[in-house]
Amino acid sequence: MKTSSCRIWQLVVLILVSVIHKEALAAKHAVGGSQGWDESTNFDSWSSSETFKVGDELEFKYTPLHSVVELPNESAFKSCDIGSPLKSLSGGSNTVKLDKPGTRYFACGTSGHCEQGMKVKITTVAADGSSASSASSPATTTTTPSSSQSTSVASHQHQLLSFLSLITTLLVSLVFFI
Ligand SMILES: *[C@@H]1O[C@H](CO)[C@@H](O)[C@H](O)[C@H]1NC(C)=O
């Protein structure tokens, strides 16, 4: 009796820990860093300083001058063809979940803003870090985010969270499995 209820608790704790772990590993990326979703932001440099993994989320924050459209393919992205978007978002604050590996294209839906550079290409890799699909990533993936950049704040928080969740896992394992 005692042993079996103990086992159930071990299972419950294991499930809880893995949920916490997964939550901590899913990062939120504020698109454009501290400047947000705006014409003045350099989105190429922002996106190349981030690593997007399956389960992560994009957060678009912007003024009422802007909106978010998801474009269907690379050619629509290149030519700023915002006429037939996959998705249109508005309201100043939107979250987009990156639910599978691959490349997605976003631009501002306001006329002329995409041409002014308000567009971003997001390449999501599998959660274990391996690039599952698309071999088309000539981006600077080897560049480690420098600590002087404000855009790296999110990734530092992310690292801290991962670290904390690892510690939690270890502590809980010690308490329950010894
Ligand atoms: C890209 O999307 C546009 C807009 O939906 C469409 O007209 C075009 O045919 C697509 N191009 C390719 C290569 O799929």
Could you list some keywords that capture this structure?
Phytocyanin-like; 8 strands; 178 residues; metal ion binding; transmembrane; 3-stranded mixed β-sheet; 2 domains; 34% helix; alpha/beta
Set out the fold topology.
Elements: H1 2-25, E1 28-30, H2 43-48, E2 52-53, E3 57-61, E4 68-71, H3 74-78, E5 87-89, E6 93-97, E7 102-107, E8 119-125, H4 153-177
Parallel strand pairs: 1-3, 2-8
Antiparallel strand pairs: 3-6, 4-5, 4-7, 7-8
This protein binds 2-acetamido-2-deoxy-beta-D-glucopyranose.
Region (Disordered): 130-150
Signal peptide: 1-26
GO molecular function, one term: metal ion binding
Describe the overall structure:
The protein contains four helices and eight strands; from the N terminus they run αβαβββαββββα. With 178 residues, it is an alpha/beta fold. The strands form two sheets. A five-stranded mixed sheet has the order 2-8-7-4-5. Strands 1-3-6 form a three-stranded mixed sheet. Helix 1 runs antiparallel to helix 4. The site of 2-acetamido-2-deoxy-beta-D-glucopyranose has 6 residues, from helix 3. GO terms for molecular function: electron transfer activity; metal ion binding. Keywords: Glycoprotein, Membrane, Metal-binding, Signal, Transmembrane, Transmembrane helix. This is Phytocyanin domain-containing protein.
Net shape: elongated
From the helix content, strand content and strand pairing, which structural class follows? alpha/beta
* Number of helical stretches of at least 4 residues: 4
Radius of gyration: 20 Å
Helix content: 25-40%
CATH topology of the largest domain: Immunoglobulin-like
Kindly report the average pLDDT value.
82
Biggest sheet: strands, sense, closure?
Answer: 5 strands, mixed
Question: Number of domains in the coordinates?
Answer: 2
Number of strands: 8
What is the beta-strand fraction? 15-25%
Quickly name the level 1 CATH class of the largest domain: Mainly Beta
- Stretches where pLDDT is under 50 for at least 5 consecutive residues are 131-151
Strand order of the largest sheet: 2-8-7-4-5
By CATH, the architecture of the largest domain is named Sandwich
Which series of helices and strands comes N to C?
Answer: HEHEEEHEEEEH
Unique bound compounds? 2-acetamido-2-deoxy-beta-D-glucopyranose
Transmembrane segments: 160-177
Region (Disordered): 130-150
InterPro entries: Cupredoxin (IPR008972), Phytocyanin-like (IPR039391), Phytocyanin_dom (IPR003245)
Protein name: Phytocyanin domain-containing protein
